[in-house]
Design a protein that fits this description.
Elements: E1 3-7, H1 9-16, H2 25-34, E2 39-43, H3 53-62, E3 67-71, H4 75-84, E4 88-91, H5 111-123, E5 127-132, H6 136-145, E6 149-153, H7 155-159, H8 163-182, E7 186-190, H9 198-202, E8 207-212, H10 214-237
Helix pairs in contact: 2-3, 5-6, 6-8
Bound molecules: pyridoxine-5'-phosphate.
């Protein structure tokens, strides 16, 4: 069974658009967990553009199964992670101007730094996953760095347009998943997953968990509209 972790960052984005409390990502977390999700993922960004420190504190209190904190490998975030103690931290590269996480972490280049960083998280009993492109060199470096998991970046697969390109990107993910498992690493996957591209990912036996945000939150908005229109019309017209 593949576990489904829901990234609720986009609920916070919508809330922040008004600078008030609605819609509350904490309520969203409670709803998705009650509906069968296996965990919650949030990315606490340096600029706090969506999830805020307060959200993380409250989430820690309500998420009992698995809280996955995506974060840049900075000293500020290390202090926060050690205090909050999520079940897992997923280390991601972070650029201020990007719209979303653009690529995988360069573990090869930052091996020594990440080794120490991972050790610090392990001292607090936090599992560590590294968000990497499906590239054997990065996976081998993740193993050397002492990571518990890799999260394979599925963005290139999700963005591929032709059957040939889709197959090529999918094959990279399959090979990377096998390679990671052979190194004793757990395998997660995420980025750009939707109803069309999930089934092929679900067939990869090594994948334990997927983290999905944008498409699921977007779909929930669209699918929820008929109900809220009906209710509002009733309130207006009896
Ligand atoms: N995994 C990681 C590491 C991410 O940075 C993101 C995007 O926040 C996701 C998964 C989820 O991607 P999406 O929102 O496209 O489903």
């Amino acid at each position: 069974m593949i576990r489904l972790s829901i990234n609720i960052d986009h609920v916070a984005t919508l809330r922040n658009a008004r600078g008030e409390g609605f819609p509350d990502p904490i309520s969203a977390a409670a709803i998705v967990l009650a509906a069968g999700a296996n965990g919650i993922t949030v990315h606490l960004r340096e600029d706090r553009r969506h999830i805020k420190d307060r959200d993380l504190l409250l989430l820690r209190q309500i998420v009992q199964n698995k809280l996955n904190l995506e974060m840049a490998a900075t000293s500020e975030l290390l202090k926060i992670a050690v205090k909050i103690k999520p079940e897992m931290c997923t280390l991601v590269p972070e650029k201020r101007a990007e719209l979303t996480t653009e690529g995988g972490l360069d573990v090869v280049k930052n091996l020594n730094y990440l080794k120490k960083y991972i050790k610090s998280l392990h001292s607090s009993n936090i599992l560590v996953s590294l968000f990497v492109n499906p590239d054997p060199a990065q996976i081998e470096a993740a193993f050397k760095a002492g990571a518990d998991y890799v999260e394979l970046h599925t963005g290139s697969y999700a963005n591929a347009k032709t059957p040939k390109k889709i197959k090529k990107e999918l094959d990279k993910i399959k090979t990377a998943a096998k390679f990671a498992k052979q190194h004793g690493l757990g395998v997660n996957a995420g980025h750009g997953l939707n109803y069309d591209n999930i089934p092929a990912i679900a067939e990869i036996p090594e994948i334990e968990e997927v983290s999905i945000g944008h498409y699921l939150i977007g779909s929930a908005i669209l699918l929820g509209l008929p109900e809220v229109i009906k209710k509002t019309n009733k309130l207006l017209n009896g």
